[in-house]
Give the backbone structure.
Amino acid sequence: MPAFTPELLAVGALVLPALAAAALPLCRRVPNVREAITLTAGGGLALLVWTLAPLVIAGARPEVAFGRLLPGIELGLKVEPLGMLFGLVAGSLWIVNSVYSIGYMRANGEPRQTTYYVCFAVAISATMGVAFAANLVTLFLFYEALTLSTYPLVTHARTPAAMASGRRYLGVLLGTSMVLFLPAIALTYTLAGRQDFVPGGILAGTAGAGVLGALLALYVFGIGKVAVMPFHVWLPAAMVAPTPVSALLHAVAVVKAGVFTLLKVVVAIFGLGALSGGVTSGWLLYVAATTVLLASAIALAQDNLKRRLAYSTISQLSYVALAAALFTPVAAEGAALHIACHAVAKITLFFAAGSIYTASHKTEVSQLDGIGRRMPWTMSAFAIGALGMIGLPPAAGFLSKWFMLQAGMQGRQWTAVAVIVVSTALNAAYFLPIVYRAFFVPEREPAADAGGHRPHPGHGEAPWPMVVALTTTAALTVVLFFRPDVPLALARQILEP
Amino acid sequence: MTAIQPHLPILIVLLPLAAALVSAFFRRGAGAWALAMGVSALLPWMAGTMLWTVVRSGEPLSYALGGWAPPWGIEYRVDVLNAFVLTLVTAVGAVIMPYARRSVAREVHEHQQAWFYTMYLLCLTGLLGIAVTGDAFNAFVFLEISSLSTYVLIALGRDRRAVLSSFQYLIMGTIGATFYVIGIGLLYLVTGTLNMADLGARLGPAYATYPRPVLTALAFVVVGVCLKLALFPLHVWLPGAYASAPSVATTFLAGTATKVALYLLVRLLFTVFGIGITFRALPMTAVLLVLAVAGMVLASFSAAMQRDAKRLLAYSSVAQIGYVTFGIGLANANGLTGGLVHLANHAVIKTTLFLALGAVYYRIGSVRLEHLAGIGRVMPWTMATFVVGGLGLIGVPGTAGFISKWYLALGAIDAGLWPLAFVLVITSFLAVVYVGRVVEVAYFHEPSGPARDATDPPWSMLVSMLAAAGATIYFGFDTRATAEVAGMAARLLLGGRE
C-alpha cells in the first residue's frame, strides 16, 4: 500500500476516532448503525496501528507538523517506538472494548449511549494524540483533552455519587496538570529554550541538580494520571463509571497515558544520564515504592471488586514509575513493556468484573463463591488476568517484571528488587483468593441486600459479545508471553534516536 | 478606499458618533438596531485595515485634527497597540449586534430600545476614542462619553437594582475621572503639553526638576484609571453593574470597557511616564503585582460563592483583570505580551460566556443557579458554548485562555517570581470550581419550572454565540492575530528592551 505513508497513518490514528465521534450523533436514532460506526472505526484503528508498527520498527519516524502555536512552540506529531508501543496497545484494544461495550450497555439498559460512544471515541483520539505527540505542549493539549473527554464518561450515571466522583476526578487530574505539570513545561521551555522530545533529553547541562530534581518532582506529581500517592484518589473515584470505561480508559488509555508521559519525560526530556546517580532524583524510587506497597495493601482490604482492581492498577502504575526511577536502559525497556503487559491483563480483569455484574449484579468479592461454575469463561479469563498481575508465566506480566528485576539487580538497587518481590506476594494475596472462591468454594444461598434486591438467582454467562471480548484479551495476555516480538522490538528501540 | 484610508483614525470615531445622533431620533428599536448593526459591521474593517497597515509598515499612523500639527493640536495616533485594541473593541461590537435585537427586545422596555442603541453607539464612540487618541486630555473627554453612556446602559436593566448599581458606578466613575483629570492637570503644569508622545519625551527631564508633582500625577492617574478598569480593591462597582445591566450591555461592557481602561493604563505607564519613572523610581511592580494577585485570588473565591451566574462571571472578570494587571506589572517581554494577549482572549471568552447566559435569560428570565437546573439538557447548544467559554476561562490548552496563561507563566519565571507563577496557575484552577458549579447544575440536575420548556434561542442569537465560542477555540490555535501582535506591541512599549 504505497498510498499509505507512515505520516498519513499517524494522522489517521487521530482522525479516524474523531471522525467516528462526529458521525455518531447523526445516527443516534439507529443504534445498530451507530454501533457499526464504532466497530468500523475500532477495526480501522487496529489495522492502522498494526500497519504502522512494523514501519516504526524498521526505522520509520514519521513526523507531521500541524503548524505554529506561538513563536517557538510548534504543534505536531512524531511517532517514535515508545509512543508506537502505547498507541499499539490503546489502538488495538478499542475494538475489543467496543464489542464488550455494546454487550454491556445494552444488557444493562444504560441511558445516553450516544454520548457515551462519542466521548469514548474522542478519548481514544486524544489518547493517540498523547502517544504520537512530538513535543510537550502538543502532549499537554491531548492530555487535557483526554481528561475532559472522559469526565462525561465517569459521570455517566448523573447521580449525586457520580457527580461527587466527577468532582474528584476533574479536581485531581486538572488540578495536578494545571498547577504542577504546566509550570513544569514552562520551566523546561525556559531552561532549554525548546520543548520537543529528543532521545537523550534536552535538559542536560541547563541547570543544577537541585533545579532538575525539583522539576522532576513537578513532572512526577503533575502528571496526575500516573496516580502516584497522594494524587491517586481520582482513580478509585473513577470506578463509578460503567465498567467498559473502567476497563479501557482507567486500566489502559488514561493511566497508561500517565505512565507513558512520565517515561517519555524521563527518557526524552531529562535523558537517563541527567538523572542517574543524582541525590535529587533518587527520591522518586521511594515515592514509587511507597505507592506500590501501600496501594497493594489497600487493595487487600477492598471487598468491592472494581475498587480492588483500581488499587491494583495504582500499584502496577507505580511499577513503571519505579522502573523509570532506576534510570537505566534495561529498566526503561521493562517499564515500556509493562505498559503493554499490564494493559491486556488488567482489561481482562475489568471485563470479567463487568461481566459478573451484568450477569449476576454482584459487585463484592465476598459474593463470588462458586461463581466460576456458572461463568467458567469469565472466571478462567479472570484467572489468566490475575496471573498477569502477579507476573507468573504463561501470562505476559512475567516479562516486564523480569526486565525490572534484572535492572534492579544490575544496578544493585536492592530496595527496588525487594519492593517488586514483596508486592508480587501481595498481588498474589489479593487475586488468588478470588480465583479460589470462584472455583473451589461452593455457592451460598443469596441473601437479599438492603434494598430487598436478591442477586440474580439462576444466571449463567454474560451476553456473548462480552464473553468474546474478555476471552480475546485473556488470549492476548498469553499470546504476548509466547510471542512478545513486536512490543519487545519497540521497547528495545526507545532509547535509540 | 485609498482616498479615505488616511482619515480612518478620525472616521472610526466619527461614524459611531454620527450614528448615535441619528439613532436618538428613532422611536422604535428596530430602526435603531439596524443602524447600530450596520455601523458595528463596518467598524472592524476600518480597525482591521489600520492594524494591517501598522503591522506591515511598523510605523504608527498619525492624524492631526483640524490640520494643527502635534503637539499643539490634538493628534490621533495609531500604533500596533492602539490598532490591536481598536480591532478588539469593534470586533466584539460586531459579534454581539446580531444577537442584540432579540435580547434587547426581551429585556428593555419598548420605548427605551432606541435609547439603548443610541447609548451603545455613544459608548462605542467613547471607547474607540480613548483607544485612538494620542492626547491625554482628549482621552479624558472620551472616557467621560463612554462612562456617561454606560451609566444609562446599566440603568436600562429591568431589575430595579439596576438603578442603584448605575448610581454606584456613577459615583465611583466620577471619582475616577476626577482623579484622572487632576493627574493630567499636574502633568500639564510641569510639562506644558498634553500630547502623550510629547509627554513621554518631556517627563524624563521634568522628573529630574520636579519629582514630586510628577509622582503625584502618576498616583492620581493610576488610581483614576484603575477605578475604571476595576482593579481590586477598586472593583466594587463592577459586580452589581454587570449583574443588573441588560445582557447585551453586560456582554459589551465585559468585552470592551475594562479592556480599553486597561489599554489606557498601559499607555500611561509605558508611553507617558515610561519604564524609567513607573518601574524604576517607584515600586509600581510591587504595587501592581500585589493588587493583581489579591484580585486574582479573592475575586476567584468570591466568584465561587455566588448564587447568580452573571454575578459569578462578574467576579471572575475582576480576577481576570488581575491577570492582565499581573502581566503589566511584570513589565518584561513575556509578561507584557501575556497581559496584552489576555486583553483580547478574555474579551472573547467573556463575550462567549455572557452571551450564553443572556440566551438563558432570554428563555427563562433568570440566571440564578437554582433556576439553571438541567438547562444543559434543554438548551444544548447554549450550554455547549458556555462550556467552551468556561474551558477558555480555565485556560485549557486548545482555547484562547491557554495562550495567555502560558505567556504570563513564562513572564513570571523570567522575572524570577517563582511563587507567583504558582499563584497564577492555582487561581486559574479556581476557575474550575466556579465554572464547574454552573456546569454541574446545568447537566446533573433535573430541569424544573420554566427551564422545563426552554429551548435554544433563535438563530439570530445563536449565530453570535457560536461565533464567539468558535473564536475562543480559534484563538487557542491560530495566535498570529493575538499573541504575535501583542508581542509586537509589548516590544514597542518596552522600547526594544527584551
